[in-house]
Amino acid sequence: MPKTARIEVRTDPEHEALLKQAANLTNQTLTSFILEAAERRAEQVVAEANTTVVPSAFFDQLLDALDRPPEPNLPMHRAAQRLGSLVIDQ
Predict the structure, then answer these.
(1) Integer angstrom CA distances of residue 67 from 54, 57, 90
(2) Going by C-beta distance under 8 Å and a sequence separation of 6 or more, which residues neighbour residue 23?
(3) In 3D, which of 63, 41, 46 has the Cα closest to residue 54?
(4) CB within 8 Å of 70: residues ≥ 6 apart
(5) What is the reported pLDDT for 80?
(6) What sign has the CA pseudo-torsion 50, 43, 60, 67?
(7) Furthest CA-CA distance within the chain
(8) C-beta separation of 23 from 29 below 8 A
(9) Each residue of 22-64: pLDDT tens digit?
């Protein structure tokens, strides 16, 4: 895919020198070095935003509850009957 989007960044001379030095040390252009670092950080941020972390005890309780569904009771039986009348077989 052709690269047509443009991102401009302003920085002070000290940061520019540091970034150029790091790019040279990794045999990359300044642009590719900055883009790679930004992409890596962006992927990390998105992954963290899309991950839910819960305490292990909560997770264990959830799995246990899923393995042992509740016994049918009268309200559940009535709800299943109502649902059955709403489902149309094709």
Answers:
(1) 19, 15, 32
(2) 29, 30, 32, 33, 34
(3) 63
(4) 76
(5) 83
(6) positive
(7) 74
(8) yes
(9) 999 999 999 999 999 999 999 999 999 999 999 999 999 999 9
Axis-axis angle for helices 30-49, 13-25 (nearest 10): 90
User: Tokens 């150029």 map to which residue?
Assistant: 20
CA distances to 5, 49, 51, 61, 64 from 58, in Å: 45, 20, 16, 5, 10
DSSP per-residue letters across the chain: ------------HHHHHHHHHHHHHTT--HHHHHHHHHHHHHHHHHHHHT-----HHHHHHHHHHHHSPPPP-HHHHHHHHHHHHH----
